[in-house]
């Protein structure tokens, strides 16, 4: 038996690690189209942009890990085709890798702007180490930066570049920041926090075209409202797309991601898909979901390895996310729903508070700002099905940390 893993990110490396930890003694080959050793992506936007000139990738595992665990790591070569009948993967350098089990951990890529001028010099995405280094080389204190999108990546990048002395304008087509992941309360609080540092946030304004000034010294971002914003740099923070093209060409079922069942198997039982590229039936979202987070990549990597080793459990891990924006750390446990009932607990004016979200009186997610203890309590409550109701939470003096500990103690 041979397992081939396409993708050298968090999910792919976790599958290999968990297979070996689970006693898998057959051949493992991992293929990544990036030349560097597998590295952590979150610091590229969350931390490294705060320290110009010091971008150094943090490894997902030490280099010796791959040798010590007899994992054949093929770097700098893309997988270009899958022959499911012959069970082989074709690489760009002409190699043909046979497999008995294939893992699609192909991740995601920056969503194209799809507008004129998107390919001009000075327009950057931020997904890979190479992206981060290119952006870093273009940044100087006082640079004018237009960021497209007020999601996690856009806001993290904005706060980092603002700290470096850049002038920042964010164009967000939606009505609020982080609309896909956060409650309106949290969106408004973070928007004001960024504005207080001098970042100019503009909602319901979409970028329409990118030109250059006469002579080409600067970029000009033109918006759908007819406004012109001169910029030295334009950063695409408008989200990512699943890398599902390879799977689609191989005939796997895809729909904004490779479709998998509760065990993470694709429409071909010899192939599993994990991480950013996989759309799975989520018990927490109540529908199929594709989650872009380290937690999801890691947990699905472990689960896929278990499936390969013969496990039959359904994937049910509680999703959690985090974002570092300037001095503020946002942590989310669970999936925030559009129609949730909400309670704000803590001191928003002091930058330490949480928003608890409920469906049918039951806690389903918690967003915490600079309150790691509350975040951990929320994860415990959701993971262990500890009952926390809206009626309990509105009682004066309610503490999620205390309530969670008390219920766990009584159950022990």
Which SSEs are present, and which pair or pack?
Layout: E1 2-6, H1 10-21, E2 27-32, H2 42-46, H3 63-68, E3 71-75, E4 79-83, E5 88-91, E6 96-98, E7 101-104, E8 108-110, E9 123-124, H4 129-138, E10 144-148, H5 152-163, E11 167-172, H6 184-195, E12 200-203, E13 207-212, E14 219-223, E15 228-231, E16 233-236, E17 240-242, H7 245-249, E18 258-259, E19 271-273, E20 278-282, E21 287-289, H8 294-308, E22 320-325, E23 328-334, E24 341-347, E25 352-359, E26 362-369, H9 372-383, H10 390-393, H11 400-411
Parallel strand pairs: 1-2, 1-7, 2-3, 7-19, 9-16, 10-11, 10-16, 11-12, 18-20
Antiparallel strand pairs: 4-5, 5-6, 8-17, 13-14, 14-15, 20-21, 22-23, 23-26, 24-25, 25-26
Helix pairs in contact: 1-8, 9-11
Give an overview in words.
Residues 2-301 form the FAD/NAD(P)-binding domain. This is FAD-dependent oxidoreductase. Pfam families: Pyr_redox_2, Reductase_C. Its cofactor is FAD. It comes from Citricoccus muralis. This protein has 412 residues and is α/β, with parallel strands linked by helices. Helix content is 25%, strand content 30%. The protein has helices spanning 10-21, 42-46, 63-68, 129-138, 152-163, 184-195, 245-249, 294-308, 372-383, 390-393, 400-411, and strands at 2-6, 27-32, 71-75, 79-83, 88-91, 96-98, 101-104, 108-110, 123-124, 144-148, 167-172, 200-203, 207-212, 219-223, 228-231, 233-236, 240-242, 258-259, 271-273, 278-282, 287-289, 320-325, 328-334, 341-347, 352-359, 362-369. The chain has a 5-stranded parallel beta sheet with strand order 3-2-1-7-19. A 5-stranded parallel beta sheet has the order 9-16-10-11-12, with helices on one face. α1 links the parallel β1 and β2 (27-32). α1 packs parallel to α8 and α9 runs parallel beside α11 (400-411). The model has no long low-confidence stretch (mean pLDDT 94).
